[in-house]
Design a protein that fits this description.
Helix content is about 35%, strand content about 35%. The chain has five helices and seven strands, in the order H-E-H-H-E-E-E-E-E-E-H-H. By secondary structure, the chain is α+β, with helices and mostly antiparallel strands. Strands 1-7-6-5-4-3-2 form a seven-stranded antiparallel sheet. The N and C termini lie far apart (about 80 Å).
Length: about 180
């Protein structure tokens, strides 16, 4: 009786450890009444990027994102300030921006956490589908919470306004009037 009980506890512990370190991916999509080349400047410009991404407090980068260029990003996460090293991993003009965040500093955050943030634009007629994906590794979230967050982000109603959509569509309406 001791053998099987010990074995199942060990396997349960291994599974818990494995799940705790599995990547967690959150995805959000929206449809913007603009073409991809009209949306791209709001994705590719750090100045605009931090305006529509509410979690960002500031980014120590100017001009446009450059492939391989590292910089520091300051976030507000869980009501606390943190910072990380951000590097531009992929750029496909008018289609894709991928940023990798690592070396986190702040309370209640794991320094070894790694986050890959991807914004993908795809044309849908005269509109653009924007897919924002955030993949986290070494997040340290309890194993029961990770699938719950995935389900909510995948099937739940979006919370708050989509500031990227708002910025792009307001600019398009203003250019039509002016």
């Amino acid at each position: 009786m001791v053998g099987p009980s010990f074995r199942s506890n060990r396997m349960c512990g291994e599974r818990h450890s494995l799940i705790k370190h599995l990547p967690m991916k959150i995805r959000q999509q929206s449809l913007i009444d603009c073409l991809p080349h009209e949306v791209w400047p709001y994705v590719f410009s750090p100045e605009h990027f931090q305006k529509w991404n509410e979690k960002i407090v500031s980014m120590e980068v100017q001009g446009e994102f450059r492939l391989g260029h590292p910089f520091v990003t300051h976030y507000r996460w869980r009501q606390e300030q943190l910072q990380c090293l951000t590097q531009v991993e992929r750029i496909e003009p008018n289609r894709l921006l991928e940023l990798r965040h690592s070396s986190f500093v702040g309370s209640r955050v794991r320094s070894e956490m790694e986050v890959v943030e991807r914004v993908t634009l795809s044309r849908r007629g005269s509109r653009t589908r924007v897919t924002k994906t955030v993949a986290m590794r070494n997040h340290g979230l309890p194993w029961l919470l990770a699938p719950l967050l995935w389900i909510i982000s995948r099937f739940g109603k979006p919370v708050g306004e989509d500031h990227l959509k708002e910025m792009c569509e307001n600019r398009k309406q203003a250019s039509r009037r002016g």
